[in-house]
Amino acid sequence: MDETAGGAVNMRLIGAIVAVATIGGFMFGYDSGVINGTQKGLEAAFDLGKVGIGINVGAILVGSSIGAFGAGRLADNIGRRGVMKLAALLFLVSAILAGAAGSSAVFIFARIIGGLGVGAASVISPVYISEVVPANVRGRLSSVQQVMIITGLTGAFVVNYILAHVAGESTAILWAGQPAWRWMFWLQALPAAIYFVALLGIPESPRYLVAKGDESGAHAVLTRLLGTASATRIVGEIRESLAADHHRPKLSDLIDRATGRIRPIVWTGIGLAVFQQLVGINVVFYYGATLWQAVGFSENYALQTNILSGVVSIAGCLATLLLVDRVGRKPLLLIGSAGMAVTLGIVAWAFSTAVHGADGGVTLPGSNGVIALFAANAYVVFFNMSWGPIMWVMLGEMFPNQIRGSGLAVSGFAQWIANAAISVSFPALVVSPGLAITYSFYAAAAAVSFVFVRAMVKETKGVTLEQMQG
């Protein structure tokens, strides 16, 4: 059913709401990407080896998995906006504490706090957007979340590059007697504060308000967004969707009472979440500088390469904005899986030709370095026009109203656990079995994800949230 029928859609207000909500995506990206240029500083400050770097980098993922799992349920109790405000405060505290950390233990604690915010923002921002925008533009506007994630990542890469360039390198003193790598963390406090203040000006999700019995509040929000006639009808539809099985949402709702088994839609959500990570995208985001330095790039050039990856990522996301509500979710996922399998395979081949020098350095012979760079960025484009935004779009919209919070909790938790497994293991895998085998695994995961989408994913383009079946 067309949610816009019978009333004037206030696209200016909807746009403003989406802009504020997706600052959470920006913080998600910035908090995840800032670590990329700080690893030399962490090694020097805390005397870390490869395993230690993996633990310090991966600490955010521990918090993210907990934050994602808890946010879905918490959002059913304190609201979508309430959880986003909490996430903003967590980002702010983490930024200050991580920059000031005097030990690895304090740094890990700070990053876990930031991870709680990342996990919460990662699942709540998409579902909030899906609950306040019309179905015919839901995919496009929900995809803005991924654009902002990549913008945040790219912003972190740019800030890291500028600070390292001004100081001379990331470990050199910059301002107030502190090295540049610490300022890379401290500067993210500014967008965190902006996020919190901006959240004070947007309304709560009308679907949450109806679930809490505040139909007048939901009607008021929807009237501002879609007009009075649409508001009255949609409140009724939300009420009806909840009436058949309305009780306080709980995890056991994910089990089908008729069969006693976990609902198929839950397995689909978990599969989407896990495959998004098994293709290795966060290796590029977290370890881009380390990765390119491992094959002979200087720190300065490696940081510039990160910025290039961020720019092409944004281009891929913008393509999704144009296509997701026209082509649909499932076709884009299939295209992305196929494209990633091919490009990751090329990257794996290029790294298999690496030459190890007498000084322990590694180079790619001939034009293989250029081939690896182009293939890696093509892979990033395929990811960001498909699995990057579409996974979050679908998790925000695919679950029925009654289980949306619980479905997001489980799927988000699975996503961040897979993220942690891939990210923490990467530093050791660079040494053994090596980049070629590691990227071959990511290519194989991309190929399997194609089969998964064909078999398990149902198209949700144009379907209202009240019509979602589980």
TrEMBL record:
**Is Nucleus there in the keyword field?**
no
SUPFAM superfamilies xref list:
MFS general substrate transporter
Show the Pfam families listed in the entry: Sugar_tr (PF00083)
Q: How does it sit in the membrane?
A: Multi-pass membrane protein
Q: Which residues form the Major facilitator superfamily (MFS) profile domain?
A: 17-461
Q: Where does this protein reside within or beyond the cell?
A: Cell membrane
In its keyword annotation, does this UniProt entry include Oxidoreductase? no
**Superkingdom of origin organism:** Bacteria
Q: Where are the transmembrane segments?
A: 12-30, 50-71, 83-102, 108-129, 141-163, 183-202, 265-289, 301-324, 331-351, 371-395, 407-430, 436-457
Show the Gene3D superfamilies listed in the entry.
MFS general substrate transporter like domains
Family statement: Belongs to the major facilitator superfamily. Sugar transporter (TC 2.A.1.1) family.
The protein's name in its UniProt record? Sugar porter family MFS transporter
This chain's source organism reads: Novosphingobium pokkalii
